[in-house]
From TrEMBL:
Organism: Streptomyces agglomeratus
GO biological process: peptidoglycan metabolic process; proteolysis
Stretch forming the signal peptide: 1-37
Region (Disordered): 505-529
Any one Gene Ontology molecular-function term assigned to this protein's record: serine-type carboxypeptidase activity
Alphabetized Gene3D superfamilies for the sequence: D-Ala-D-Ala carboxypeptidase C, peptidase S13, DD-peptidase/beta-lactamase superfamily
Protein name in the entry: D-alanyl-D-alanine carboxypeptidase/D-alanyl-D-alanine-endopeptidase
Amino acid sequence: MSRPVNRAKRPASRRTRAWAAPAAVVLACTLIWSSSATTVAGPSDTGLKGAIDTILTDPRLDGGAASVVVADAATSETLYQRDSGDRLMPASNTKLPTSAAAMAILGPDYRFRTDALSTGTRQGSLLRGNLYLRGSGDPTTLAADYDALAAEVAASGIKRVTGRLIADDTRFDSQRLGRSWAADDESSYYSAQISALTVAPDTDYDAGSVIVSVAPGTRPGAAPRLTLTPPTDYVDLDIRATTVPAGRPNTLGIEREHGSNTVSITGNVPLDASTTKEWVTVWEPTGYAAAVFADALAAHGVRVTGGPARLGRPTPAGAAPLATHTSMPLKELVRPFMKLSNNMHAEALTKAIGHETAGSGTWSAGLAGISGYLKKEGLDTAALRQVDGSGLSRMNNIPAAEFVKLLLAVRDAPWYADWYESLPVACAPDRAIGGTLRSRMCRTPAALNARAKTGTLTGASGLSGYVTDAGGRELVFSIVLNNHLAASVKSIEDAIVTTLASSTGTTTRLVRPPTPRAATSGTDSAPALECSWRKPSRC
């Protein structure tokens, strides 16, 4: 697979505040569209065919493929289609069926649980037995949540455990990486390993990763200053980087070695460089969770003396509960999941669907559950292939027509309002609202109007969602573009959606894509990442 270019118990308000803030300002990196618009007379097909066909003649798509469908949301009438049944790589548009199936099967009030339990007998502050940490797949568990669990264990009166800490991740299977995920992405946080026990280092909930912060040392020749979030001995930092005089090139490299939790820090860091943050995956997130919990227990005065933690053992029936942490409900979790296109949320939900529908927390069971839901909603599941929940795999193939069927079908679901709110909003600058669309389609009729799921892999791009046209009609659209050599074809997608937003049922206002600032053909060794997969995000 090519490198993707799409990446103490706290009050609930602290968890969700970031996902409810209003839009404030328009970002400076937006494109100006008004000068590119012209009016086209509308024939009986409302003129959309000629307008969208014209947009799709953009030379960046030469030799590529396009599957595009537009429909009237109220009547389901197809207003435009181009190769609607062609199976193309949808990238993160794959999260549309995953998220919808999760809402339907698990339910909007579904919560993940993480439990601390004990076996054996109690003698005052002494527990003669093992302490179990049992996970159910929560991809949003923070170090602070493990600290809260540890505080509850201590509050129960336990000061010493004669047995071991056992990390029970058996709700999911032991397959950590998805089908055909790229080996050279293993260190990247958007390709983290999936486990029923994991840790997120931030409130973007990038499960299974740590944040390595590197700042220049105090003088040339000194080692750079490093910070690890959350602090943990589970990850080793191999520092081979050097501080160099101000003005010298910054050649800093941060990457985890395959099969280990050693993160190598290499290269030169100029004395005047700002702090660099890199989100890096861990090897074996179950061990990561156990290590963070063990540190929290020690900090709260609970000693576990029976030896090193054991991973992957089931909790015995009848184990006594000591503490429980529950995640935010799915109707809230779906917002950071979809707004920021979080791959790990998609895969955790896929395996949770498998456990719910078949008693098996596996990709195969979860995907079968998603497929069953899609078939019930009228999609032709024989016409598509889904091999993971996130779209990270290049083996996913879904036609635009099937996305439109889904987008139409979910409008009658009782959970639709919450799901609709999870979609990124064009030109809404707050990350919690605009998400991956926050810098797109600004100063156009689509701004603060279009809601859609983005998707990007090298040579694959997608945008599927909803927009209201100038006549007040809600439209459903799916645009899947593949096999282009251009670094980005996002402005082509945006031109189509802006044309829809500018048009009425009788006239169509063609909006041409702006001339891209970068080269539009030829291979690109480092294409720009999708907003959600840039850390820290600058778009």
